[in-house]
Structure formats: structure tokens, C-alpha cells
Amino acid sequence: MADGDSPSEFKLYHYTPSKAAPVIFILLFLAITTQHTWQMIKHKTWFLTAFIIGGIFEIVGYIARAISARQAPDYTLMPYIVQSLLLLLGPSFFAASIYMILGRLIVLVGGQKHSIIRPKWLTKIFVVGDVLSFFVQSGGGGMLAKASTPSSASLANNIVLGGLILQVLFFGLFVLVASIFHARMRGDLTLCATASSLPWSRYLWVLYVGSLLIVVRCVFRIAEYAGGQEGVLMGTETYLYVFDAALMVLVMVVFSVQHPRMIIGREKVAGYRMDQLYS
């Protein structure tokens, strides 16, 4: 928090935003989102569209943040609202793609009997949870962006906190489902998995890594909003780039290097068609 701020004073930023940092992350997210878009088109992995949308949210969010940085100290409201909302919500789209990958993977290795949730319900349950978390966060984020008093900001903080906690809870359940499936598969490998060249175990580890990075980011955001407008995390810009921006770049890099393209082109496994995942 900058010197001279009083507890009752509401400010859009409690520091002067860096001009260089958002530009660096604009370029990083632009490069990796472009790479993901090319990979999606080349391999026809259309179910990863949400991943691209998440990247676009990050790009536009940091563009808005760069605009805010150049307006200091006379900030306008719109760039602040845009960066606040898009940077808060972008990871929800990464989460949606991660949820969809697991459901497809279970079907492709014929491992339905090893999943504690039926594949056609698994994706629906977690994506619905992600959407619910998204709307709670966006509602709170919208209120926070327009808050003009400490009391309204506190209420908005609590709503965002609820959405973030909900997201972490769903991720925890997701990791539990994935790890139980993984353990059961290792103990009783299916015929489809044995005969297939699909590196299903490696993809599961990729999902674990991606999930961990997003959960760490969500825990940071929970601590940030729990601390409120006067907290150290919300009052120190460096934490945003270390525990949010950098981690989300890593998520995109991991899923580019270990791109789930091998999930496509295997329409029938153990009597299931891929479209049955959503029927």
C-alpha cells in the first residue's frame, strides 16, 4: 500500500502499476496463444477452444493493464475493469479444457469401469462447476471493479472469494477422480490401453501439473482477496506476476509441449463413440 493511504480511502490501485511487466506478458501470452491456435487448427482439437479463449482473456487483460499503467496516476475506470475481470476469469477457461481432456481420455482407453464418475457425467459435472465458479467470480469482480467505498469493495471481495473457493473445491474433486482412475488403471490395465499407443499415463501427469498450477494461482487469489484492499498481496504488484501471470503462462506452455492431439482420431474405443461423452 502506498504511503499516505488511509484505511477509509478507496483506490483502484494501491501502487503505481509497472509499464514493462504487462507488455512482457502480452507478448508471452500472444506467442503461446498463437501456438495453441495453430495446433488446434492443425490437429482439429476443437474441444480446446476454451483454452484459446483463456489465452485471449489474458492478452486483453494485460493490454488493459498496460493502458492503466500509462494513465498513472489519473486512472480511468474502463481499463481497470477490463484487466480486473479478464485476468480473474481467464484461468476458468483453462480449467474447462482440462476437465474435458480427462473425460475423453477415460473413454479412449476403455477405462469407464475404473472411473468413480461415469465419463458422460464427469465432464458435465466439472464444466458446470467451472461455469458456476466463473459466474460467481465475474459477478464479484464486476462489483469490485465498480466499488466506490471500502464496504462495497469488501462485499465484492467476499463474492469473488466464494467463486475462487468453489473452483478450488472442484479442482480438488477432479484430482481425486483422476488419481483414483490412474491408480485403478495401473492395477488393472484395460485391453484398449495395452493395445493403444496413446500415452494415457503421461497425459494424466500433464493434467496433474496443469491442475496444480491453477490451484496454486487460485490459492494466491483467495489469499489476496481475503486480505482485502489494504492487504499486502493486493497492495504489492509483484505477487500478481509471480503467482498468476507466470503460472498461467506455464499452464499454456505445458499443454503446448504435451499437446493432447493424440486424443483425436480414435472415434471408437470399447464400444463408445466420442460424442457419447456428451449424450
TrEMBL record:
Pfam families: RTA1. GO terms for cellular component: membrane. The chain crosses the membrane at residues 20-38, 45-64, 84-109, 121-139, 159-182, 203-223, 238-257. Keywords: Membrane, Transmembrane, Transmembrane helix. It comes from the Eukaryota. It is found in: Membrane. The keyword Lipid biosynthesis does not apply. This is Uncharacterized protein. It comes from Cladosporium halotolerans. The lineage of its organism: Eukaryota, Fungi, Dikarya, Ascomycota, Pezizomycotina.
